[in-house]
Amino acid sequence: xxxxxxxxxxxxxxxxxxxxxxxxxxxxxxxxxxxxxxxxxxxxxxxxxxxxxxxxxxxxxxxxxxxxxxxxxxxxxxxxxxxxxxxxxxxxxxxxxxxxxxxxxxxxxxxxxxxxxxxxxxxxxxxxxxxxxxxxxxxxxxxxxxxxxxxxxxxxxxxxxxxxxxxxxxxxxxxxxxxxxxxxxxxxxxxxxxxxxxxxxx
Length: 202
Fold this sequence. Notes:
4-stranded mixed sheet, 32% strand, 202 residues
């Protein structure tokens, strides 16, 4: 009786510890999801870019996204090819002006914020349009930011129109923010192993 009650008490303790460790993982994962909230603000869904005019691209990063730089590309849904706009933009920037020259008109363009080296996509804009230079409509005010010009049709052999300098190119920051998930997973594994060992001994 005493032994069986003792075993049941240890099983209860083990169950509670597992629940606590699981809650730590859930909280940590939730924090990561909230931190990694990279949003492309412009271009929006109703945006129309006119060839020959500068258009502001803007974005909002999470507080702990965990990378130093990112790249910007433009692609089209109905046709293959990528426009390589800007490489290694520092996260300290929040906007960029883009000028299109002789880019084919269409209503199925997307702007992508990406780590082109690792192939990791951070965010994708809403679908927007590109129109000819003589199309009617007002032009937006350019942002107080650098301007990059993209021209012609996509060329897989072309380079980025502008590179903003050397960096770690999106490699996660060292320190707790970069290894938090790994530490939590290891802690859970070690805790589970210890609980299993105690239950076997008793």
